[in-house]
Amino acid sequence: MTNSNMNITRRQALSGLGGVSALALLPACKQLGIDGPSGGEFAALEPDAALEKIGYEMLAHEPGRATGLGVDTGDYAAWRGTFGAPGLQGRADYAATLERLREGARDYPKDGLTPDQLTSFEVVESAFAKALEGFALPYGDVAVGSWRNAPYVVIQNVGAYIDMPRAMGSSQPLSNEQDVEYYLSRLGEIPAVLDGEIERMQEARAMGVVPPDFLLDKAIGQMESSLAAAADGTAYTGDLAANLEKAGLPADAVDGAKAIVTGDIAAALERQLEELKIQRAEADSDPGIWSQPQGEEYYAWATSASTTTSLSPDEIHEQGLEELAELHGQMDPILKEIGFTQGTVGERMQALSQDPRYKFAEGDPGREEIFAFIDERIEWIKAQMPRAFNELVDPNMEVRRIPINEEPGAPGAYGGAGSKDGSIPGRFWINLRTTDLHRKYDLADLTYHEAIPGHVWEGEYSNRLPLIRSILAFGAFSEGWALYGEQLADELGAYDDFKVGRLGYLQSLAFRACRLVVDTGLHSKRWSRDSARQFFVERNGSKFEEVVGEVDRYCSWPGQACSYKIGHSEIVRQRARAEAELGEAYDFKAFNTAVILGGNSPLDVVAKNVDRYIAGARG
């Protein structure tokens, strides 16, 4: 494409989009036999080729995910111009493909497979079977091989109105003129994605599924902000001119992009806002999924999907209470040692949180202080990794502020690895709507969780695995590993000279134990929203400002909060088993390396990986 035709109009972009949606996936799919009617073709392929085929067949339904992984190149480059089929039909097509892929993985001949190959087929079958259970439910979003299962298609922390600006701004490549065409093509497809969500929202509402009013109030406010940004042309295009200039590309496409954003995208956001307001008029204030049609069934599936176990809500609730008591038992003597002797552990942690020595400055000066603090902790923990692992990675990563319009509905932080090809860095996103969200005694621990040796570190290892293993992720492992990463930092001496920092680490673990109690309390035991908040504040000393958004997040992601501590406790249990069975042959670094090289897996597969480590260590 030359400069003379870079000025693409909205109509031209949409015309090009139609071709991409209908045809661009076909060449790559035909090469792999993706359009075949059955899973029988897998048996004729070598194991690694079969796994590769499964990965690309899955990504054909999520080409945006392929971009995030950096695998939409070569024969798959046209995927950069589409998000795939939206709405109810897209959901049905995806489910049909998953069923065929699950059968193919289940029936693939297992004789002669390496342990890693066998693990990969087991992971595929487990992940797709659990996702298909979710697709069989009459409503909700199913995160295939990911963590964000949600009963409400659009709410304060779910929906294309949140996801698309972030993806287009941080993951969509813009390195050549063809990429610009793909950018405009995807941009032109967003209205159809938004309308597909409306179709599903209306279907759910017709069966009586309406989110609670307080979540809708947040979503409406955020939608109005998104609509305003689209209407004035700043959404999606704010950094576009700078990015084009940085890549040495003409800026003509900015006008075409703004026409799409201010026209069809803004109109679709208006339609979503109208639907949210209709829902708000019908909503009640019940926070738990129990109040929705088939709510108990949905929650049973959601907890099993998030924990990769068969634990019941009652069992999860009791485990949370027991682990909370044990962790508070470790915190009590430290609090007494530093002079906090009166009251419960929660009350004393509340008092500690008000100590000005551990607060960051307000406003932008405090935000700069927070970024400097995080950078220093990342440098320290990087230097410790040779003491904890036999095989090392060197993550390409960056620390970024969560976009301001997302901050009200977002957690305190989140993080993850970059793309499989390394072109997109791993990111640690920090919520800075107020610096009062963070304390100097808990920010180090948060850094270890989200960055190294937590999410960014673990993701680098998963990116080395076959494509399908890089795609499939299990919250119980990824979040459990991130908590284990916090534990590793403590064991490596992070708090040897800062006892108050160790309190922050223990409170972090206790916070996750509270999540087991609160999530099951909300969705199974019919707790109120206020009771859930007060449990955190009174029992664990959590900051009220922090838990307001936390509790609302659990209301829109039932079961997800249970994954963290269940996963961590299982990894710790497996380590204790390895130590007990191996005795002097146990090696700290070898165990950590074996678990992380085994990749992101359901917890029963993690146990099998530890079995192999034990067998190998015995010789």
The fraction of residues assigned to DSSP E strands is under 5%
The pLDDT mean sits at: 90
Low-confidence stretches: 1-39
One letter per element, helices H and strands E, the order comes to HHHHHHHHHHHHHHHEEEHHHHHHHHHH
Spatial extent as radius of gyration: 24 Å
Determine the fraction of residues in helical runs and give it as a percent range.
55-70%
Give me the side-by-side strand order of the main sheet.
1-3-2
Summing up helix and strand content along with how strands pair, one would put the structural category as mainly alpha
Bulk shape: globular
SS summary, helix count: 25
Instruction: Please count the beta strands (DSSP E, at least 2 residues each).
Output: 3
Query: What is the terminal-to-terminal distance?
Result: 61 Å
Main beta sheet: strand number and arrangement? 3 strands, mixed
